[in-house]
Amino acid sequence: MNKIKITFYIKLILLAYALVGSVLFILQDHLLFHPKAFDQDSSYQFNQPYQESVIPLDAVTKFHVVHFTVPDSIRKGVVLYFHGNRKNIGHYAEFAKNFTLNNYEVWMIDYPKFGKSIGELTEANLYEGALQLYMLAKLRYNPSQIIIYGKSIGTGIATQLASVRDCKHLILETPYYSMETLLGQYLFMYPLKKLLHFKFPSNEYIQKVTAPVTIFHGTEDGVISYSNAQRFTAHLKKSDEFITIKDGTHLNLNSFKLMQDKLDEILR
Fold first, then answer.
1. Is 50 helix (H, G, I), strand (E, B) or coil?
2. Relative to the CA of 245, which of 21, 25, 109, 215 has its CA 20 to 30 Å away?
3. How does pLDDT run across 150-161, given as a tens digit for each residue?
4. What's this model's pTM, rounded to 2 decimal places?
């Protein structure tokens, strides 16, 4: 191969590298989040008791919250639920029964652009919205009655909140060690620390969590690899658990008895 051809191929590789990097930088938010808006004047039709509220963050950003309720006489506490990256609360409402059947209220929050929530979708806004949800919960509950729950992309938000506020328990379903390590498995050739808009460094936050932590992850997770989540074990306290669900995928952990039994135990 002569020198001209070698130079041509090098330029071609560099061009492809630059193009892919540009696409990653420009479109990363659309690749990471898949929201579905819900008409502001509409009401969800859930088959369990619920109320709706709004948390105004600023003049532009407002978080919509659905409160799945239980009778006052049997209520033990509240679960602050941070869902995954798809659609809106309506997509995750079925999981509220894991907690309401154990006499815990569930407060599910939609991120900006999801459901009835509006405004700017940024990592800082997600953390602040989570904090405001916690502060509202603290008006009614002691920290010993507040459980913080994160699912998939919501685990980064949940872990950050638990690192700065006390709670009864932090529960993470299919978490990622950090967004950089997750994407670095495929895009290791890029300076992701500089490129990523959303970093979610859960690996750093979890080391500041004083509450017990329980992590659920499936061995066949094709979205967030088991090996990525397993890296958390280096930071877990004696009171923490990393629960491996054999043959579990990213979407079906709730169908496993192991997970249901453990949730019942935590919520007892």
1. strand
2. 109
3. 999 999 999 999
4. 0.91
